[in-house]
Write a structure and sequence with these properties.
binds S-adenosylmethionine; about 45% helix; Rossmann fold; 3-stranded antiparallel β-sheet
Length: about 280
């Protein structure tokens, strides 16, 4: 897939992602806290947030670093970045700036950041190694990058089963190893190897359970249809009837996660941090 396609995919999902951001932020909160701590996003730090989306973790970082620190939020989608600017203004945070473009193409002064974070983005990049090379250059020596990715289909069934259904209806195959995809960096060892091959050392990894709680399967379906760019992309170029049939089957699958208290689905993410050597 080309960068232009990825940009278009996420431009289409950006309004939905922004609408669902409070839900996504609450869902990912334990992983976000781990990522910020593992990257040493501390008072006064200069932070780069890659694939920032509508910026909830950008704003968390901006609060942690305080007025003496700063956060640059980068994304391939301009609409996402407009949401970041609006959200920062509403939150009264003057220490947030935005940077448009693909992470792979970043041209940033060497040694200019104290920490780099990336929540739920790296696994979707066409060339994650090229993005990590740019990150390594941008970081000052002995500082850290920390990322959050989904682990495996077995540990994330409410995401894996709908993806299988959409791929089946669209007549497409799942991404092969090495291709971008929601689970591409989740299998044991893959992310660790990518970080090491990109010149980082002292890789630290934590598995974090972040079960998703929603009011109903119907609400989860709406979020998936509106906000999940990778899902929308699988089915978006199919005839209307194919799309409708696929989403009906996804709805049935999501109903299997309904309990008397609402929708509850296990989700597991991997938080990994690594150091740029001197
Ligand atoms: C699943 S969303 C995560 C957004 C945000 N980090 C969060 O956790 O709320 C993925 C984001 O990655 C961005 N993205 C995808 N490919 C990218 C690339 N190559 N470079 C920069 N951003 C990219 C999308 O525009 C989207 O905002």
């Amino acid at each position: 897939m080309q960068q232009a396609e990825i940009r278009q995919q996420w431009e289409g999902a950006a309004p939905g992602w922004a609408r669902w951001e409070p839900t996504i932020a609450a869902w990912m909160d334990p992983a976000t806290k781990a990522m910020l701590a593992m990257a040493a996003v501390d008072e006064g730090a200069r932070v780069l947030d890659l694939a920032c989306g509508a910026g909830s973790q950008t704003l968390d970082a901006a609060r942690r670093v305080g007025p003496q620190g700063s956060v640059v939020a980068g994304d391939i989608s301009d609409t996402m970045l407009q949401h970041v600017r609006d959200n920062a203004r509403v939150a009264g945070l003057a220490n947030v700036a935005t940077l448009a473009g693909a992470a792979e193409d970043l041209d940033i002064a060497a040694d200019s950041f104290d920490a780099v974070i990336c929540r739920l983005g790296l696994m979707l990049f066409v060339e994650p190694a090229r993005a990590l090379a740019a990150v390594r250059r941008a970081l000052r020596p002995q500082s850290k990058v920390a990322v959050v990715v989904f682990t495996t289909p077995a540990r994330n069934p409410f995401m894996a089963k709908p993806m299988q259904i959409l791929l089946h209806h669209a007549g497409k195959t799942p991404p092969s190893p090495g291709q971008p995809g929601i689970f591409s960096l989740g299998p044991p060892g893959v992310l660790e190897r990518l970080l090491a091959d990109s010149g980082f050392v002292d890789v630290e990894q934590r598995l974090v359970e972040v079960p998703l709680h929603m009011s109903s399967a119907a609400e989860t379906l709406t979020m998936m249809k509106e906000a999940f760019g990778a899902y929308r992309a699988v089915i978006g170029d199919c005839p209307e009837a194919v799309q409708a049939a696929a989403w009906v089957e996804v709805a049935e699958t999501l109903r299997t996660f309904e309990a008397p208290t609402g929708f509850v689905a296990p989700t597991e993410v991997l938080v990994a941090a690594a150091v740029k050597p001197t």
